[in-house]
Design goal:
It is a single chain. The chain contains 23 helices and 2 strands. The protein is mainly alpha-helical. A two-stranded antiparallel ribbon has the order 1-2. Helix 10 packs parallel to helix 12 and helix 13 packs antiparallel against helix 15.
Length: 540
Amino acid sequence: MKNIFNKLKPTHQVQRNNSRRPLLQSHGNIQEANDYPDHGHPPLLTQNTFSLDQCLQGNSTLQELANVLKGASDVISYTSEASSPQQNLKQRVCRIIQRSMSEHFPKPPLDLDQNLQQHLRSVQNTVFNEIMTLGPLLHSKGLMGCLIDCYQNQIFNQLESLLPNISSANTSIVLMNWIKNTYQSQEFLGHPDLQKMAPTEYVNKQQVEEWEAKVKDKLRENVQTEIRGSLEKILRHERVPRHHNREEAYVQLYVDTIQCINYFPKQTQNIPELSQEMKAVCFQELQLFVKRYVDEQTETLGKWAKMDKPEMVHFFKVLKTCRELRQYIQTEDRTSLLSEIEEMLENTESSTLKHLMDIVTDMAESHLKNYFKTGNKQLFFLLDAVKKHFPKLSYCQDEQRRVMDDAYKLIVHIYVKHLIKTSQRKLKKCWSSDVEKTITDDAELIHIKISDLAPGVQKRNLLLVKVVDVLNCQDIDTMKLIVATMQKYYLTDSSEDLKLLSNLLQWKGLSKWEVREVLDALPTEHQPRPRSRCWSCCCC
């Protein structure tokens, strides 16, 4: 850009006594002032016009300039309502500048979205050249403000007519950047070559601010339209039935969504306050998008969960998408809008996991209800069924591990629940006399099978190890420690788990008073409320 300006710079210092080109060469082709529309610009001068440079040549003064202006019939006949001769003269000078400007000012392009950037460069170069030519003369006579006012009005009047036709958000950003970052910068009015004339001191700041607001409104409108359309396209693409067992399809929704939301804030990051406004607009659209997405997925997953063998990868993809979007918005400053989005995503994750655990529960209940009564291989069949339902896929390991972690805990819990419903005498008859060893072997088998599906999964079979400890324990105080450990690390404070502990102790052979003593020894935060009522319910 600087090279362009260097080419436009005059090769010599403009002097009043050394004019180079006439501005007004003839008076015959100048129209009368009453031919001018009140609201428009004066018509273009013909080639037979005088130059302002000639008007100020030699030792010309402002009075001489006025005499020359009177020589132009259209300017002379122009009647001003100015309160002083000086203001009158300024207005007449402005009309000559407008004449020259109308002749040389670049015409707007037909295709704004493609050519606005180039047009703004042309405007910039033209105005810069005019200031370099006329500025030294007008500045020395206190008329620099006329020059800047004329060109600023011309620029913004033209942009006023163009703004309604700008339909692209990117084009809106180009215009916003030009007004905000270029117009008064060293690339244009603040250029070092214009420093002595100080054109930026004559800029109408209020007009610039008003224009920034207009362009910002247009930008916000275009960004909202484009973001909404892009998100709708993403959602529409997600509805099309296709295989999700490919990594690209697995991650595409959240990757495309995040890229879409980030695009315009990044495009405007050189104007920080504008970038924040673009974020707000984009997050409003994200909220609408997430609401539609989670509603559709909740309905779809509910249908899939009822199938005999649904594809788990569909559930995993929803978990992945919700988690990634949730983590993405957690990097932003907290707002009520983002909190609402996060809550919707969390609820969808929870409902998706619930569907999966319902599937695991059905499998575990159907296989384990007879395992402790018949001595068959139902535990193997259960773990094999889990493996078939949750195939290993390299690109969804995190979701697989998360689901298997919950499934692991659930299977162990259901195992213990059915175990203590069967008397030890019957277990010894169906299994062997060493019930503790069978439970230990089963705990190891469960861990091996689950670890194969989700390498690195945390050991969740320790509840079974503690059951063996309960069976082997003969000391009531030691029993209290074992039960407290089970409650703290492997169970919850729910009434269901409390009842499980009570039933386990009774299954062990403790009296109801011993059961109460052990449960009363639990830390207060792990005891139910009201406590005495629960004890009586569990021990009866």
